[in-house]
C-alpha cells in the first residue's frame, strides 16, 4: 500500500533566492499538508550521511558541498500516495528534462541546484523524516 507521507527539502539556492513561500505554496496547492517544517543548515558530515546512498557516484562530493553551503528547509508532507505524487510535482532531477509546471522546471537552476529534494520510496520517506524531526515536532 502506498504511504501517505513524503519528505522534502528546499535546497540552498531556492532558500537564498527567497522561494520558500512560492515553493511551499505549490506543495499546498497540490494537496500536500505540512506535518513538520524547519529551517536548518546541514554540516558537511550530516549532508554526507543524508546522501550516503550516492557516495560512489562522481557527483557525491559536489552534492555534499552544495547541500551544506547554506540553510535548507526540511519538511514532512502528507497526502494520499505522497511519494509518487510528490515526485510528479517536482519533476525530473535535471530541470532541462522537467515537465512544464513542475517545481524544478520553475525554480531549479541546474542538476545540482535543482530547488527541492523528494523521497524516492515510502521506506526512505520514513528514514529521511526521522533524520530531521522528532515525534513531538510533527502535527
Ligand atoms: P533526485 O533528487 O531527483 O532523487 P538523485 O537521487 O538521483 O535525484 O540525486 C540526488 C541529487 O544529486 C540530485 O537532486 C542532484 C544531484 N545529482 C544527481 N545527478 C547528478 C549529476 N549527474 N550531476 C550533478 N548532480 C547530480
Ligand atoms: Mg533521490
TrEMBL record:
Record-annotated Nucleoside diphosphate kinase-like domain positions: 3-137
- Main subcellular location of this protein, as a coarse class: cytoplasm
Q: Where in the cell is it found?
A: Cytoplasm
GO MF term set? nucleoside diphosphate kinase activity
Task: Kindly list the cofactors needed.
Answer: Mg(2+)
Q: Sorted alphabetically, which keywords does the UniProt record give?
A: ATP-binding, Cytoplasm, Kinase, Magnesium, Metal-binding, Nucleotide metabolism, Nucleotide-binding, Phosphoprotein, Transferase
User: Does the keyword Hydrolase feature in the UniProt annotation?
Assistant: no
Q: What positions does the entry give for ATP binding? A: 11, 59, 87, 93, 104, 114
The record's active-site residues are: 117
Enzyme Commission designation: 2.7.4.6
**Which HAMAP family is this protein grouped with?**
NDP_kinase (MF_00451)
Quaternary structure, per UniProt, is: Homotetramer.
Query: Which family does the record assign?
Result: Belongs to the NDK family.
Q: What is this protein called?
A: Nucleoside diphosphate kinase
What organism does the UniProt record list as the source? Rufibacter roseus
Lineage of the native species?
A: Bacteria, Pseudomonadati, Bacteroidota, Cytophagia, Cytophagales
